[in-house]
Predict the structure.
Amino acid sequence: MRGIVYVDILFFINAIIGYFLLRAAMRLSGVAAPDWRIFLGAAAAGFSSFLLLLPPLPAWLMWGAKLGSAVLIVFIGFPVHSVRGFLKCSFWYILLNLTFSGVVLAAVYSGAAKNVRTNNLAVYFNISPLLLIGCITGMYLTVQLCAWAFGRPRPTKTTSFAVRFEEGGVQGTALVDTGLSVRDPITGAPAFLLSFPAVREALPPGLLHTLSLYFDDGVIEAGGVPLRLIPAQTAVGTRALPAVRVRELRVGDGGAAARYDQMCAVFTPERLADGSFCAIVPAEE
């Protein structure tokens, strides 16, 4: 590859592009990321552009380097808690990269770019940096406009929780859901959801044994911890899930924590969403 490539400009322009792509991916995926992570991810995107400067690589190594750099950028830019969440962020980041490439190619066909150079699946256009920044800014504003017009995924609001059973208790991170309306149909007591796989290691032995029997064999043991079945709407439809009465549920930290009694803990056999929380609790009224 012949010609002059200014490394500082190559890094700076690609870091700016990476910043806007990560911000747009955050908007579309609904995964919240702090600014410092976005800046670090943008810096990683700037460094990834140096693939252009390496000697020509074998095809398998080129694709591996491109995929590995995209994975690393997403890993640095987002606080991903599960494989599903990571794949969602990666999907939007890669799709936005391809979309941006299409925008730049449109500029090329319009005659705005000259002396196109390629190496290791990286493309260098001899065009004004302002045109590149203008393209990525326009694409980001388009994403923002679509989010404003059609709504955007809302970042999940989570908080700490602690629940006390008759013996022992569990604590962790919970999703605060303003639409949670599960109740015991007999007593009318409000309920919250707990993921059995996520909290099983912290459950009291008696409750763990009773719930394991139910989820593994569909059996409610006579003389064991008393379970009640509560209908709940889940992703797979309405199901009757096992529940127990709890002594206390505390949501939040310190003196601002909300305390609830006379509630039921409803156990689900799956992990909740992407696994970043193990309970779903109602919003404080």
Notes: The chain has a mean pLDDT of 75. The longest helix spans residues 83-109. Helices lie at 7-29, 35-48, 59-77, 83-109, 129-150, 196-199, 205-217. The radius of gyration is 25 Å.
